[in-house]
Amino acid sequence: MSPQSQSTPLQAALTTSVTNGHFLDTVYYLFSSRLSSGRVGKLQPLYANSQVLKAAGQHFRGQLSAGFQMRHELPNDIEDYDYAEDSDLEDDDQDDIATRSDIVFYIYLHQPALDEIDTVNCVDDKQRTLSNFKHVIVIPDVAATTWCALMCYIYTGEIKFALLKSGGKRHENIVKHKRDNPLAPIPCSPKSMYRLAEMIGLEGLKTLALENLQSQLSTVKIMDETFSKFSSWYPEILIAEADHICGLYLPLSSNTTTMTAIEEKISQVARGELPHAEGAIMALLRRFSEHKSITPKELDGDSRPSSPPGGYVPKKKLRSATTTMHAS
């Protein structure tokens, strides 16, 4: 008789739920929209099983093992959102579409009762809903779309990335995806997922996001991407973009359009419009002069890209406000 295979964390959680009647013990609240005021709002609940998440990595083991209890009000919106360029935040006039799609997906995946869905989305009953979960966690600096994709990746090992916004076809691609796959999660930005995977230490997911981003470089406004604040945070991405530019356009003497675009970006830096872009200039200059790839270590020291609020991103931890509720 062959030895019985060991069950996965997901299988174990499902088996336990058969006898205790509970699978979802964790609810995350994340913002889904960029409001017309410039603030980030439209708090959205996403559900998970803590046993499955703890098996995914140290970040979740620490996050979901808190032995304290606290209560606080759920925020309606915030102004301090580190990643202002986050394309996984829907514009205000598209919020209802995004929220309905995500809720439909979770009904399909977890089959919660309909009255539970109504309660979760009723602002007046938020506190009553919180008492139904062991862990209630507010993540104020990640978009709901990105976190939803993360949860699905942890459960299934699969993820679908959206087109980069600078390519100009992201919105129509997502609309088509919703129409063709109404029960599936919305594709997330590879840039947003790279940032999140870096925060929580999931190297495999970070690699998938980077590979997808690199595969799209030929279809986007590469100069805008290279000189963006996001790229300045991550040497690995910045170098990939610089290598892509040089691989396409060397020698510059025969590409006056490219040279003009670079000169304009340098002028913007000189005017103080792109204070974060020193690393981009250094990466391009070194690549052009040496005609070879450079490594992240070569961008260390004085030429290290600028970091976002709170410090250099690779060392940054995910912000969260946690309400841990233990069943009596």
UniProtKB/TrEMBL annotation:
Gene3D superfamilies: Potassium Channel Kv1.1, Chain A. Residues 294-303 have a biased composition (Basic and acidic residues). This is BTB domain-containing protein. Residues 294-328 are annotated as: Disordered. InterPro entries: SKP1/BTB/POZ_sf (IPR011333).
